[in-house]
Amino acid sequence: MTRDDLAARRGVETTVYQPAEDSALLARAAVDGVSDADRVLEVGTGSGWVAGEVARETRADVVASDLNPHACRQAREHARTLADESGVGFEVVTADLVSAFADGAFDVVLFNPPYLPTDPDNDWGDWMERALSGGESGRDVIEPFLDAVGRALAPGGRVLLLVSSLTGYETVLDYARERGFGAEKAVEESYPFETLTVVRLIGTD
Amino acid sequence: MKESLVDILCDPLDKSDLELHVTKREGDEIIEGKFVGTVTGEEYPIEDGIPDLRPPDMRDE
Predict the structure, then answer these.
(1) Chain B residues with beta carbon closer than 8 angstroms to that of A92
(2) Rounded to a whole number, what is the distance in Å from the CA of B17 to chain A's nearest CA?
(3) Which top-level group of life is the source organism from (chain B) (predicted)?
(4) Are B8 and A96 in contact (CB < 8 Å)?
């Protein structure tokens, strides 16, 4: 989503990122790309909406995590509501990327990262900044994620990563390939100010 | 959280195993308790069914 959208949204919500176009695209790719027997982690779940869609539409085991404890409480509430309505919920863990998850734990890891390139002088200093800002390059969170995620993937495991044209599509893919991933497009949508792509990354070693 | 979640969690500091201590359950849900690092001794709270496994230096709510 764009800065103007963000500015508008920041007026009503300042601690937890709410579902937007990028969330919908990631959920679509995830529901298509997840099998019933998979164990799935959504990193940076925010409100928990994407994790909830995957839990509801597949029979996969879903875990959602976020570094922001406010987001985790909202996601947990969403999981409870979903479990009451449909009998299917998901687990919520407060954690930094995949650092608290065991080696080989997941068949699929989903991530809609903070990706907006941000002026270093623009310091909101709140949770919404953490949810949106990818630092000056837009890749300050994506790169540590790509460094670490392979450890938490089971053999044959894959990553569905949302990449915006604002962040540099080819740069992100090159980085992923250097970390030993094969990359292909899962879904893509163009918007007035950015193109959003969900990339499927598969370990090649 | 369900007790089975412990199988896929690890201590964020060194990836070692965690020991689960439960103080409140509701059905098969663990509501309150803590994880303790079996190697580091670090404590990670479980509140309202959510384990907080942030490394200690990232717990800036």
Answers:
(1) 1, 49-50
(2) 9
(3) Archaea
(4) no
d(CA A69, CA A92): 10
| A104-125 confidence digits (pLDDT tens) | 999 999 999 988 888 877 766 7
Per the CB < 8 A criterion, the answer to whether A13 and A71 are in contact is: no
Q: Residue B22: which domain range?
A: 3-58
Alpha-carbon distance A109 to nearest alpha carbon in chain B (angstroms): 13
**pTM metric for this prediction:** 0.92
Please state whether beta strands A195-203 and A153-164 pair in parallel, antiparallel, or not at all (unpaired). Answer: antiparallel
- Beta carbons within 10 angstroms of residue A62's beta carbon: 30
Nearest-CA neighbor of A173 among A203, A146, A191? A146
Measured between alpha carbons, how far is A27 from A62 in angstroms, rounded to an integer?
A: 13
The Cα–Cα gap between A50 and A25 comes to 9
pLDDT in tens, B6-16: 999 999 999 99
ipTM score assigned to the predicted complex: 0.97
Give the best residue of B2, B8, B59 to mutate against chain A (max A CB count within 10 A): B8
> What CATH number was assigned to the domain covering residues A3-203?
3.40.50.150
